[in-house]
Amino acid sequence: MPLTYLDSSALVKRYMDEAGSAWVTRLCASEPVAISIITLPEIASALGRRTREGALAAGQGHTLFRLFLKDAPTFLIIGLNQAVALRSAAMLLTAAPPVRLRSLDAVHLASAQWTFALARRRGVATGAFVTADRALVQAALWAGLATMNPEDHLH
After folding, report:
1. What pTM was computed for the model?
2. C-beta of residue 62 within 8 angstroms of C-beta of residue 56
3. How far apart are CA 142 and CA 132, in angstroms?
4. 10: domain CATH number?
5. In order along the chain (155 residues), what is the average pLDDT of each group of 10 residues?
6. Range list of β-strands (E), 3-146
7. 3-class DSSP assignment, residue 99
8. Which domain holds residue 84?
9. Which of 21, 47, 83, 131 has the most CB atoms in a 10 Å sphere around its CB?
């Protein structure tokens, strides 16, 4: 089972019923998953936004976030270290059109690169960078990462 990296747009599907939710749930149950530490506030942001927009009932965002925190120990959580910060900065400085790259997206890409490189040095198979953000799929391909979009796996 390869180590897979999920960004927040993919992982939130485990907690919200969206296109690709069943696929993400199966992936998390069957493969080791790495996430960035920035996923914690990003998941809270997504749930809070959906509550404000009326897609979640009052209090439901808090309940889903607690469920995410309960699941968090099952993920390999990658901290924001100097190597990841510098690599993400380099990406932001060198990405040329048509690559659209925002700062936290670059942190996700650099976290995945760093994690996969460390895993391969330890003899651990690596999988894909999983995101539901189509612009980030393109940036990940530019960064040399294999990609998967859960919205392309609806079964």
Report:
1. 0.95
2. no
3. 16
4. 3.40.50.1010
5. 97 95 96 98 97 94 98 97 97 94 97 98 97 96 97 77
6. 3-6, 33-36, 76-78, 126-130
7. coil
8. 3-152
9. 131
